[in-house]
Amino acid sequence: MKTNTPFNWKLHNKAPIVGIVRNLPLETIIGIANAYVTAGLSTIEITMNTVGAAKIITEIQSKFPNLNVGAGTVCSMEDYNEAISAGSQFIVTPIINEDVIKKAVADGIPIFPGAFTPTEAYKAWSLGASAVKIFPATQLGPTYIKDVLAPLNKIKLLPTGGVTKDNIESFFAAGATGVGMGSSLLDKQLIKNNDFNGLADHFKSIKEEIKAYI
After folding, report:
1. Three-state SS for 97?
2. How far apart are CA 9 and CA 143, in angstroms?
3. Is the pTM of this model over 0.85?
4. Residues 124-151: pLDDT tens digits?
5. Of residues 55, 63, 133, 154, which has the active-site annotation?
6. 45 belongs to the catalytic site
7. Which of 45, 59, 98, 208 is catalytic?
8. Which residues contact 77 (CB under 8 A, 6 or more apart)?
């Protein structure tokens, strides 16, 4: 098993955006990671349903020591063990798998489990989640985050799905402690054109939207 570098919360909290990378080759992800570092972002998730995910996690963590490199779409203990063996510094799930959450907590690995309802969010938090990924947040929006946090104000929420440059500030204003972003962060056209300087500028512009909250 690969020895894990601990998750750097200080870096994460300076820009609490989890970039979700799915179905891209290693060479492209290296370019994205370079742009990430340039822009001052620090937390990047490789989904386990990406071809060669474990190898990608190991390579990116090795090449970019100032990034928090984790595994997403972790749905089973098999996924978890593979991700940790690859060197994942944090775990993200789209669901609540109690075994996975409890194992991550026991191992001291930050975990962001997926939840949709207040009951699911509370359960995930009670099991020891570092933050609860509200997923999919596409149809729920910032108002839902605010409503959930009214009675459950101790829970850290990380809305994912539907977060864009145009609405990211609203999610933080509603009380989110971070967000997960996929296609709206990883601009497909810039990546297709290998314009990683442009991608870094895009990252910076999104980070600028939340400067009042970090």
Report:
1. coil
2. 27
3. yes
4. 999 999 999 999 998 899 999 999 999 9
5. 133
6. yes
7. 45
8. 97, 99, 100, 103
